[in-house]
Known about the structure:
By secondary structure, the chain is mainly β. The protein is 9% helix and 40% strand.
Amino acid sequence: MSKTKCxxxxxxxxxxxxxxxxxxxxxxxxxxxxxxxxxFGALGLVLLAAGLGGFGMLAxxxxxxxxxxxxxxxxxxxxxxxxxxxxxxxxxPPAASASAASSASAAPAADTPPPAPEAPAAFAVATTLRLDxxxxxxAVADDEAMLFVLCEDGTLRAHALDSGAEKARARLPGKGTxxxxxxxxxLAVLGVSTGLPVVNTASWLSGAAPAAHSKKIDVKGALDxxxxxxxxxxxxxxxxxxxxxxxxxxxxxxDGEIFFPTPIRGIAPLSSSxxxxxxxxxxxxxxxxxxxxxxxxxATKPFGGARAAWTSLLEPRASAVPPAASSERALLxxxxxxxxxxxxxxxxxxxxxxxxxxxxAFPWPGDRAVVIGAAGEATLVSLEHREVLATxxxxxVPSSAALSPEGxxxxxxxxxxxxxxxxxxxxxxxxPLRIVSTLQTGEGSHVVSVAPTGRLALxxxxxxxxxxxxxxx
Length: 473
């Protein structure tokens, strides 16, 4: 067989009809299209034909490669929507029915750009209140003239915010675990095994007898309380018997209750244009079984007669969120699977990664969420795109967090860890999300409470036995 000389290296090793020199591996003639590794399907041929001619040829070829995912570009993530709400045997209210009927075919929300960069107003330490007993929880009065402290010795105390002087002290019927503000200047004390104490703070501070300012409601071991509607009804969740009770009227008389087969972990109010709803968060029957989110109308009669159930989270939890910041969406998080969920009535729930070991989650402007993790990170998440946008190292182990009413500032008490001796509180805010300030709030800083106006915040530190008052402009 005759051989020809290679035009590149001069070697006489090229056989007749060959397209490549075996010595220098140079192309003697252009390779045939059929020998290319790029496979052209029907769509590829159409796209390539559309790009024929000069730069159009290049564009057409690029389009073919892009259609096969061979240009190395990042493909949009594939998301699987959670299952729709499944109705119970009772009839659903209209808004709950809309939520139950939502499916993967629902149109996605339009892109929501994040707010422009801004410098948030930072909190600063105003005063420190020293106590003779470790504080468990704190709350600010409606007029922001007083602060209330629940202490480990079973007392509820009232102090003036300006001077820190103690103005009143009440002995509770048991040791409580937390405070909840109720309409009308009332405080509910959680965790008392003999019942739910409710204190009318105005009557208490005026010097009225205990019988006139305090009432014990027959709900033992209350773990959460929420108010809904106008006039307000009060919903109490109890760990004893997995029971949710509705209280109505000025005397907070029980007028309905629901029992659940699995442990209740919390309740969360959910605003809706069709009327307020209540979310009841339940654990699964076993650690490997999913928990449930029960959606019900707190005002309907009989109580719980119409509800829907949604099951996709193993350990559904919710953080307390000011009404002004929550809009018409509740934010839930799953401690077991490290997911965060945007939940609203009548639209498809949106599930996104939450970062490791979430202990709190808050809505953030631009259809995003900030999740506080037990490992010491704040994770910024896009609910719209189901992805993590950024993480911020907190510099300690968080024990609790609270969101300001305008929804742009988060305070995180860093009192956690093996010894629980953390003594700082960080303030998160701004665009991009960052630590605005780090404040000294005492050893064992474990509870944060923000006033309704957002100008004041309180941090309770158990080891130091102090309450730190924070202010901002």
